[in-house]
Specification:
alpha+beta; Alpha-Beta Plaits; two-stranded antiparallel ribbon; 3 helices; 21% strand
């Protein structure tokens, strides 16, 4: 019973977080960026992944903090208003 209530509590926290984040979301221009970009390493949620030797943002993991935008040395990341 305790396990079920703990799972439910964690799910509620996750749903709450999903609702309040992402006023803006990062948009990656893969032509300007490569797999050596510092933003990949600095993402606290590991939301920037390398797919076929190109970086890609996994929006399921991204929480919209925009640290990647501030730290990108190639100006490859911009922001746009989120639809969520």
């Amino acid at each position: 019973m305790k396990l079920e209530s703990e799972i439910k509590a964690r799910q509620e926290i996750k749903e709450e977080k999903d609702v309040r984040w992402k006023v803006f979301r990062p948009v990656l221009n893969a032509k300007k960026c490569d797999s050596t970009c510092v933003s990949i390493a600095l993402c606290p949620r590991a939301a920037i992944e390398i797919v076929s030797n190109k970086p890609k943002i996994n929006y399921d993991l991204c929480d919209g903090c925009l640290i990647c935008l501030r730290e990108c040395t190639h100006s490859a990341i911009t922001e746009e208003k989120s639809e969520k």
